[in-house]
Amino acid sequence: MRLKIAPTKIARTTAALTFALGALPAASFAQDHVTYQLDWLPGGDKAPIYVCVQQGFCADEGLDISIEGGRGSTEAITKIATGTSDIGSAGMEAIMAAVATDDVPVKAVMSIFNKGPHAFYTLMDSGITSISDLAGKKVATSPFTSSNIFLPLVLSENGLSEADIELTKADPGALGPLLMTGQTDAIIAWVTDITRYMNQGEDAGKGVIVLPWSDAGIELYSATLVASDTFLTERPDVAKRFVKAFKKSMEFAQANPDQAAADVAAMVPELGVEDVKGSWLDASVLAFNSQTDEDGLGALLPARVANTWSLVAQAQGLDESALDPASIIADGFQE
């Protein structure tokens, strides 16, 4: 027996279904999946991608996000280039070196940090108030930090060479204790760790001074949003929507650091909210600063990109003619 439905009832049913579908939020429909690649372990400096998920900025753009941890920019770039991940964060110096030496198929999409994170830390009673004061002093660094690449340049910019300091290498976790106990006069670390070292100084009854290299002649882009050529070519609309959501997340994290820290901790429960907040506040000055006010959030200006490549080439002993720095920038993905 076949069920007969009057045409008018079919029309009403269709209209009701259309209305119901139109009333559903965009996130209820199939979303575009994007795999985001971190260049290191989760932490406060990575807050924007967690904000993007937790605050719904990515979902609002029709994006379903998975986040992959990393162990350095080189690994992150490799995973993105090979299609394991679609887009993520990596140091600009690593992106440039990868393209210049191996023609890796990736592009920089937007700046995350428009200043380098590298810095010297010393104690207030050390007598060191500028980089030139490091002459004849003991300086400790970790073996694998990218800061070591730029060390000769920042010393040269301030009238010194590596021969003028006594450089030693130590485990990253030992740098703070070495400084606080006077076993070294200064350490090399990132400004994203200011809260950690300030807290260690407070516990030791010591005042800590930070000497950022970005204030001493080393002006360059650092953490950068990087994507594979395949992702940008085959899914350009997805890439644009991701960049839009990511920028919105950076602005939210800047305005709401407590909530940003809570968003990270909600997805990575082994991290403490206060530690995450401190790390984000330290890192955020690399994203929101006078350069940002002048150029705009996420900007990758050709002249500054070229200057970054010049510094990278010098630091890594690369031929500057091996790369046209403008060629690694993917235009048209930022609103």
Task: Please provide a written account of the structure.
There is one protein chain. The protein is an alpha/beta fold. The strands form 2 sheets. The chain has a 5-stranded mixed sheet, with helices on both faces. The chain has a 5-stranded mixed sheet with strand order 7-6-8-5-9. The longest helix is centred in the last third of the chain and has 20 residues, at 236-255. Helix 6 links the parallel strand 6 and strand 7. 44% of the residues lie in helices and 16% in strands. Helix 11 (257-267) crosses helix 12. The chain folds into 2 domains: 30-115 and 220-328, D-Maltodextrin-Binding Protein, domain 2 (3-Layer(aba) Sandwich); 118-215, Periplasmic binding protein-like II (D-Maltodextrin-Binding Protein, domain 2, 3-Layer(aba) Sandwich). The termini are far apart. The chain contains 14 helices and 10 strands. Keywords: Signal. Residues 47-260 form the SsuA/THI5-like domain. One of its GO terms (biological process) is thiamine biosynthetic process. This is Putative thiamine biosynthesis protein. Residues 1-30 form the signal peptide.
The average pLDDT score comes to: 91
3D shape = globular
Q: Regions with pLDDT < 50 over 5+ consecutive residues?
A: 1-28
* Cα-to-Cα separation, first versus last residue: 58 Å
**Rg over C-alpha atoms, rounded to the nearest angstrom:** 24 Å
User: Helical stretch count?
Assistant: 14
Q: Which H/E pattern describes the elements? A: HEHHEHEHEEEHEHEHEEHHHHHH
Let me know the CATH homologous superfamily of the largest domain. Answer: Periplasmic binding protein-like II
CATH architect. name of the largest domain: 3-Layer(aba) Sandwich
Quote the beta fraction: 15-25%
Main sheet record: 5 strands, mixed
Number of domains: 2
CATH class of the largest domain: Alpha Beta
The CATH topology of the largest domain comes to D-Maltodextrin-Binding Protein, domain 2
Provide the spatial order of strands within the biggest beta sheet: 2-1-3-10-4
Amount of helix: 40-55%
- Provide the structure class: alpha/beta
Number of strands: 10
